[in-house]
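Researcher: Sequence recovery benchmark, item below. Answer with residues only.
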């Protein structure tokens, strides 16, 4: 069971605090360290290293974490669409690492997948990332080496690309949501890669945080309009947030503008790596509080935070009368009627029907696979390294349609690198608004269709973003040539 403020099985009261008090560090393209408008400027330095965080207040123990620039989350990067971004990774970890810029349609060589797009960055070494930013929206960054451990220890941060004409709001706020698996002492539990997590739902934590800070409340002033950018950085936890007394409007998913709409059943569902931009009108009463609850896991519902209204007089008497539609990004529209079609079958895991699969060109039974820490397969093939031969080869510039079937007992958020896709159908029914996404959640038994123009050349990873599932075999490479 996850709780916001209490560790399961301990008497400790958990206050999800960051490494330093106050507002998380923000590094924008106008700052000296992140002046990316000039390619000759000093790049932003991102320095992953060991650090300490306090999850239990000033009187409680501190927790050793891994973090960028001494913060969890790492620096909140802001840049404008069309600018050139430069970042120097300086690896101060005891392991190899890289940085993947999740959701950004950038050149293959900058995608951050070791062995596929670049060599791993060894301890003590540097790597310079440099690319133009094509799309506005909400994105994030994280390692792609031993991801379940490195991300599970705190390595991630928000990457915000600003629009030329953003919607009129009173505040633009980033919520980085995570969960942590901590032991009875408040330390990160050293159970990375255990068989239960690999074969079941992944590494679910027991303490939830918001921006690495105390998540007990978020203060609003009646009448204001807030843009909330939600990013789920958890290894495996799916969040479904219900905003008591409020009707948030979804205006973007996975960074890409969407037809403004209320979420289905009033729930904002965020799979691991998923993002949602919300417009939230503060329609509550001054002095009152309203719960934001996570209700995805029926027996683990919990109060994530309270929307706490100040006693101040309302900023305005009625909601702001201004458009909330975001401008489109320059993504080529897929032509579904002319698409090349491909079947993708997800199989394996506990209670699954996978009996054998191909691992390194050898057919092995599920027992032998499990002994090697591999229990998931895509189209009967188990991923064992990033530079595998491509599962599919796409003709560059042509529309591709993937029909993906989840023949397992667990949900899978499937992520495609280097592209965004239209989410077209689920179980034979058209998906409302056919949103652009890069990470789509499949429930057990689901069959979905996604379509995109394969316009970004290179070898691109396609994988489950339950990180334990990816590491246990649920990944493949798609080539665009």
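Model:
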């Amino acid at each position: 069971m996850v709780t916001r403020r209490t560790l399961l099985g301990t008497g400790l009261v958990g206050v999800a605090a960051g490494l330093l008090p106050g507002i998380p560090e923000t590094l924008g393209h106008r700052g000296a360290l992140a002046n990316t408008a000039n390619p000759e400027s000093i790049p932003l330095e991102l320095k992953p290293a060991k650090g300490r965080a306090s999850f239990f207040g000033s009187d409680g123990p501190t927790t050793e974490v891994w973090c960028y620039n001494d913060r969890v989350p790492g620096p909140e990067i802001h840049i404008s669409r069309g600018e050139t971004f430069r970042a120097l990774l300086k690896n101060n970890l005891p392991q190899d690492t890289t940085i993947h810029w999740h959701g950004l349609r950038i050149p293959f060589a900058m995608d951050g997948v070791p062995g596929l797009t670049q060599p791993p960055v060894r301890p003590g070494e540097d790597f310079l990332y440099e690319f133009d930013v094509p799309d506005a929206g909400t994105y994030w960054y994280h390692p792609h080496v031993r991801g379940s451990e490195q991300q599970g220890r705190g390595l991630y941060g928000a990457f915000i690309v600003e629009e030329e004409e953003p919607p009129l709001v009173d505040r633009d706020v980033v919520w980085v949501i995570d969960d942590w698996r901590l032991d009875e002492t408040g330390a990160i539990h050293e159970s990375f890669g255990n068989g239960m997590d690999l074969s079941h739902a992944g590494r679910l934590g027991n303490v939830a945080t918001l921006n690495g800070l105390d998540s007990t409340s978020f203060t609003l002033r009646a009448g204001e309009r807030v843009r909330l950018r939600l990013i789920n950085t958890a290894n495996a936890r799916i969040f479904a947030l219900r905003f008591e007394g409020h009707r948030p409007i979804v205006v973007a998913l996975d960074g890409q503008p969407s037809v403004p709409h209320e979420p289905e059943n009033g729930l904002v569902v965020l799979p691991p790596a998923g993002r949602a931009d919300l417009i939230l009108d503060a329609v509550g009463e001054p002095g009152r509080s309203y719960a934001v609850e996570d209700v995805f896991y029926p027996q683990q519902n919990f109060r994530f935070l309270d929307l706490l209204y100040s006693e101040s007089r309302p900023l305005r008497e009625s909601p702001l009368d201004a458009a909330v539609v975001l401008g489109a990004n320059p993504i080529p529209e897929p032509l579904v009627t002319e698409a090349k079609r491909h079947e993708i079958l997800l199989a394996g895991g506990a209670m699954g029907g996978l009996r054998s699969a191909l691992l390194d060109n050898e057919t092995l039974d599920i027992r032998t696979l499990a002994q090697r820490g591999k229990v998931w397969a895509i189209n009967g093939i188990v991923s064992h390294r990033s530079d595998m031969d491509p599962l599919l080869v796409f003709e560059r510039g042509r529309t591709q349609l993937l029909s993906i079937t989840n023949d397992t007992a667990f949900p899978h958020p499937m992520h495609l690198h280097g592209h965004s896709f239209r989410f077209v159908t689920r179980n034979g029914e058209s998906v409302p608004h056919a949103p652009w996404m890069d990470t789509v959640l499949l429930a057990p038994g689901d069959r979905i269709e996604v379509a995109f123009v394969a316009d970004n050349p290179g070898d691109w990873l396609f994988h489950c973003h339950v990180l334990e599932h990816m590491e246990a075999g649920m990944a493949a490479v798609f080539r665009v040539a």
